[in-house]
Design brief:
Order of helices and strands: HEEEEHEEHHHHHHH
Strand content: 5-15%
Radius of gyration: 25 Å
Mean pLDDT: 83
Distance between the termini: 59 Å
Largest sheet: 2 strands, antiparallel
């Protein structure tokens, strides 16, 4: 937990030099580096700190790591301590929901900006790639059991089910939903060639 006593005068000066201080009720925007979500960040004690949290601490309030610095103004880069209140994660989510700011379903960025959402093999947690997913679909169309497919590719049967049901790797499964028997035979032949069989 970062405390006021941990923030040197030099760090406090650096902080305020990067805040656009305006009127007491205006947003005081962070002029330095922003994280992807739009919050300001700076280094204090060789650690990245979110600047709205630093602002709360500099205003003399303690902010344990399990609590949030919540914005009344809903401007993520705002560092005006008058616009910040301390709350639990649940209280922060409730505040977001009450203000209709919580992105869900069709308002989530994966729907509003699908091009910015990593999918398939571009996702950092992907264990498979597009070609393997195609192979999984073909094997299932050839009546190979899901558990055998899962063992072959080192994933769970739930992963196989999610692929086959179109819950994962939709960009591949949607293309191959209308595969004919001829398409399946062609894909099998291509798989055998690529595996050197």
């Amino acid at each position: 937990m970062l405390l006021l006593k941990d923030i040197s005068w030099e760090a406090q000066k650096r902080f305020w030099n990067k805040v656009d201080v305006r009127g007491p009720e205006d947003c005081w925007l962070w002029k330095g580096t922003l994280v992807e979500a739009g919050y300001g960040k700076m280094n204090i004690l060789k650690k990245h700190q979110l600047t709205h949290r630093v602002s709360v601490i500099l205003s003399g309030r303690e902010l344990p790591g399990d609590l949030c610095a919540c914005h009344t103004c809903d401007v993520r880069a705002c560092c005006n301590p008058r616009h910040l209140f301390i709350g639990t994660r649940s209280e922060n989510l409730a505040d977001m929901t009450m203000k209709c700011r919580r992105a869900r379903g069709k308002t989530h960025r994966s729907f509003t900006s699908p091009e910015s959402t990593p999918r398939g093999e571009k996702h950092c947690g992907a264990k498979l790639n597009d070609n393997i997913v195609r192979e999984i679909i073909i094997l299932k169309k050839c009546d190979v059991m899901s558990k055998d497919i899962a063992v072959r590719f080192g994933v769970s049967t739930a992963t196989i089910s999610n692929i086959l049901n179109g819950n994962r790797w939709k960009h591949i499964t949607a293309i191959q939903e209308n595969y004919s028997a001829h398409d399946v035979k062609h894909e099998l032949a291509m798989m055998e060639v690529s595996h050197g069989r």
